[in-house]
Amino acid sequence: MDALLSLQNLKKYYATQKAVDDISFEIERGSIFGLLGPNGAGKTTLLRMITGIFYPDSGHILLDGVPFNPMVDIEKIGYMPEERGMYKKMKIGEQALYLAQLKGMSKAEATEKIKYWFKKFEMESWWNKKVEDLSKGMSQKLQFVITVLHEPKLIILDEPFSGLDPLNANLIKDEIYALAKKGSTIIFSTHRMEQVEEICDHIVLVNLGKKILDGSVAGIKQQFKENNYSIEIKAGAGLNSNSIFTIISEAASKYLIKINEGHSVNNVLQHIIEQKIELIGFNEVLPSLNEIFIKLVEGTHAGARAFQKI
Amino acid sequence: MNKTWLIIQREYTSRVKNKRFLMLTFLMPLLIVGLIAASTYFSITGVEHRSIAVIDPNGYIKTSLKNTNQISFSFPDKVDTANYINKGYTDILILPQFEKGTKSDYVLRSKKSMGLMLQESISNRINSAIEDQMLQDAGIQQNMLDSIHKASQVTELKAYEDKGSSSKESNAGLAMGIGYASGLLIYMTMFIYGAMVMRGVMEEKTNRIAEVIISSVKPFELMMGKIIGIGAVGLTQFLLWIVLIISLTSVAMGFLPADIQHQVSTLQQSNGQMAGGMMQASESAMKIYNFQHTIATANWPLIIGCFIFYFVGGYLFYAALFAAVGSTVNEDPQDAQSLMFPITMPLIFSYIITNMVTQNPNTPIAFWASIIPFSSPMVMMARVAYGVPSAVSYWELALSMLCLVAGFIFTTWLSGRIYRTGILLYGKKVTWKIMFKWAFKKG
Asked: pLDDT of A274-297, one tens digit each?
């Protein structure tokens, strides 16, 4: 695997908790990577170490195969934190210019790029407005533009869609795909599992400061599948649980079944054909990431951790 | 470094372009001049007139007691404490039977209460009347007494300092004024610009922009950029004030009648003496000349140099602390109040010491307070106004400056460590104990 970013045994302990406790994973170049976890799992701490805001207590971060040096590499990263903010009284154009220059761009280069993005997102008329005049969704768009302006190799987006209407969410989503296609690597942190399923290639789930899941979205779904299938039959006929499968739920003539151990899909089909029941649909049901997430995190008292002593 | 420069620029331009800055800069000198003019005007026109009935049983001071333009004394008959108001007097003064060599009390009863200044002036009048009367009793003629009075007023105390071979005119009143004014200015700027730094840091934290910027620059760069940028705003404001005051004064001088202007310039050329045969300088020209002459006795290059040094040094010392406090505040500005207390206390205390030092620049407390960086910016300015090396020796000044430089390096280092933790921390109430821990933890 051609890893852009590689984390090796990262640890960060605070006085009251182990925020990040020995986490390692790799992120492939040009992929869209999902970093998931319940509130207080240590995601933000992890992201702050990747952006060079915090230093890890121990462990290594490799960017492009060489040790991460915040002094230099900070300009290769675009970070859009969950808590977004701007200078309320500053003009939007000036603000974008200022933040771009802080990322090491020259004034001319930054101006050109800002104009390009503002045109693309239909924000040209905003240049002389102030941030306090923008709605939440509008400032979100602005923040996204500021994050990707300097064409970072690594883009970190913490809940990028919160507060956006579907239209603008799609706009941003398309940009994320486009950026990944152009070779940027994107770390995407969110609680919205349906977005993760849609966008991400690879995910890591952290809880209580530890990595508990690491793999491709498809692979993880296979890993957690429970032999569940949906069956639709012609109205009027009935289906009952038997030695081959158990019915979990039924609605009209649609059934959700679980195949019992020692049996296969062919056994089920055979059973239905033998019963002379007309089959309309037969599909494997994979668990949603949402279900996997809840299954893994539930009962770990993740929320109570913030106020515990180690 | 390049990024710190960007931050400095933003902090500076965003404030200097602000309407409030322009208003404060241009209205402040006008306001000060206006206040001085108004208070002068009211002190001239707003004086109340008192007519005092004096009951003097043996008529001892009747001839010697002189009226002023504020007080008129009269010696009516048949006036007593019961009826003086009805008879149109504002006060009644009752003298005791006068006996030589004994101290006795006068009683003053008034319709309206009387200010301290007025009481003092009345008691001076009575005393000098008694003195005159006694001198007359001793055989001195009234006209001789008058001429003695007149002749004795011309003397004026001119103090000189001996510095090796040369001696220099010194002026304690001026030194006090300069010391007090520069101490007060530094005190005010510490508060105004220190609080501005604190608000700026709080704004960045509560706006959540801090995290965006910290992902581009180091926290220390952000803090220093802010401190230096705002400090530059303060210096700009001072420079503008100085320019404004000088130009306002010269404009005001331009309104003087031509002959007075001419007289003043003649006085300047002839070092205060009107050459024989030339016209006599008018009283107002003399006053203006004296004022200019007094101002010129101060060592301005030294005072201005020291002022800039102590302003910058003191600002850096306190601004860093204010920044540290700002970084620990959450949404609630009330938190800032209690955390600011340990910073504002030494400031207020230093101001009080400065007031003492302007009158007496060489006490032990003045010495120590001018060395310790918490108070040295204000206190040392008050002492420097009295002259170097006559009031403050060179080594004291050097030690004080060195301590201040070491002091602000230390507070900046300390605050940088508190700041980098505080700026990203939300939802936790921070105390000084926690801040102390942040500052001295390793790593």
From this structure: 888 888 888 888 888 888 888 888
Beta-bridge mates of residue B94 = B55, B107
Both B128 and B56 in one domain: the answer is yes
Residue B190 lies in a domain: yes
How close, in Å, is residue A306 to chain B by CA atoms? Answer: 12
Task: Judge: A102–B3 Cβ closer than 8 Å, yes or no.
Answer: yes
The better pLDDT of the pair B148, B187 is held by B187
Contact between chains at B215 and A99 (C-beta distance less than 8 A)? no
Q: How confident is the model at residue B371 (pLDDT cuts 50, 70, 90)?
A: very high
Determine the Cα–Cα distance for residues A39 and A79; give it in Å rounded to an integer: 19
- Above 60 in pLDDT, residue B443? no
Residues above pLDDT 70, as percent of chain B: 89
Cross-chain CB nearest to B212 (options A75, A81, A101): A81
Q: Which of B337, B320, B308, B235 is nearest to B21 (CA)?
A: B235
Q: Which residues make up the CATH 3.40.50.300 domain(s) of chain A?
A: 3-222
CA-wise closest residue to A11 among A47, A46, A62, A51: A46
CATH number assigned to the domain comprising residue B81: 3.40.190.10
Contacts with A84 from chain B: Cβ below 8 Å: 208, 212
Tokens of B322: 């204010």
Residue ranges of chain A that CATH labels 3.30.70: 226-285
A88 contacts in chain B (CB < 8 Å): 207
Same-domain check for residues B335 and B393:
yes
Q: Give yes or no for residue B114 having a pLDDT over 80.
A: no
Same-domain check for residues B89 and B213:
no
pLDDT (tens digit, 9 = 90+) per residue, B68-107? 777 888 888 778 778 888 888 888 888 877 676 677 778 8
Domain that holds residue B229: 171-255+298-440
For strand A77-80 and strand A154-158, is the pairing parallel, antiparallel, or unpaired? parallel
Q: What's the CATH fold of domain A226-285? A: Alpha-Beta Plaits (3.30.70)
Do A53 and B211 count as a contact with CB atoms less than 8 A apart? yes
Q: Closest chain A residue to B218 measured between Cα atoms?
A: A53
Give the model confidence (pLDDT) of B199-253 as tens digits. 999 888 888 888 888 888 888 899 999 999 999 998 898 888 888 878 877 777 7
The pLDDT of residue A310: 44
Ranges of chain A with pLDDT below 70: 1, 301-310
pTM above 0.95, yes or no: no
From chain A, pick out residues whose CB is under 8 angstroms from the CB of B15. none
Are residues B395 and B334 part of one domain? yes
Q: Is residue B285 part of a domain?
A: no
ipTM for the whole complex: 0.79
Report the residue of chain A nearest B18, measured CA to CA: A89
Q: Are residues B121 and B179 in the same domain?
A: no
3-state secondary structure chain A: CCEEEEEEEEEEECCCCEEEEEEEEEEECCCEEEEECCCCCCHHHHHHHHCCCCCCCEEEEEECCEECCHHHHHHHEEEECCCCCCCCCCEHHHHHHHHHHHCCCCHHHHHHHHHHHHHHCCCHHHCCCEHHHCCHHHHHHHHHHHHHCCCCCEEEEECCCCCCCHHHHHHHHHHHHHHHHCCCEEEEECCCHHHHHHHCCEEEEEECCEEEEEEEHHHHHHHCCCCEEEEEECCCCCCCCCCCEEEEEEECCEEEEEECCCCCHHHHHHHHHHCCCCEEEEEEECCCHHHHHHHHHCCCCHHHHHHCCC
Q: Are residues B347 and B413 in the same domain?
A: yes
Contact list in B for residue A101 (CB cut-off 8 A) is 6
In a shared domain, residues B322 and B244: yes
CATH superfamily of A3-222: P-loop containing nucleotide triphosphate hydrolases (3.40.50.300)
Question: CA of B270 to nearest chain A CA: how many angstroms apart?
Answer: 59
